[in-house]
Fold this sequence. Notes:
Blueprint: E1 2-5, H1 18-22, H2 30-47, H3 54-68, H4 75-86, H5 94-103, E2 107-112, H6 116-125, E3 134-137, H7 148-158, E4 165-169, H8 172-180, E5 184-188, E6 204-206, H9 209-216
Parallel strand pairs: 1-2, 1-4, 2-3, 4-5, 5-6
Amino acid sequence: MAIIFDVNETLLDFGALDRYFGDRFESGHGRVEWFLTLQSAWMAQTLTGQFTPFITLALGALRQVAARHDIVLSHTHQDGLVERLMTLPAHGDVIPALQWLKDHGQQVVALTNGGAEAVEQQLSHAGLRPFFDRVLSVEAVKAYKPAPAVYAYAIEQVGEAVDQITMIAAHDWDLIGAAQAGMQTGFIARPGKAVDDEGFQPDYQSADLLKLVQQVIAV
């Protein structure tokens, strides 16, 4: 069996960006507004068959949010976001969950909308890289999740039957894409994340990553 993890917000704690955004935006919701703007950008690119690197979109979203609030950001401020994205810490439950999976002989894979070089740096800085058998980026197919091509690529790279693959993410749209590709799905309820009780339902869900992977790999 193989477990595929989303990276940003799922494994890495974006709450660490709150101080950066709090120092620049008075609303107190700068990080959330920025991420939703970024998400809209990559969804638009996916729907229109375009592909711009993640960091370029991330900085564009930052400038959009700043413009909405009549704030001018220097290049130094913009570079500061990139630096912080590369040095995000892992959520506290991540290493115990990944260690448990490795102890039980599972293939562990990362699949990110971020760039290939960037995710290697992120996982290494957070102390997570040794746990992963494969680290995959959407750059390989030039489309963002939840485009079907991304999940088809991941299935091919993993080399397992699709019903033996589980995608774990903190975003329901990611899991919807994985489910459409035939994978099982696990939702990790990070702060501020939820699924619609009357909409898409993942196969597994928990607010604790170790408990979630133990649901997936029942031993």
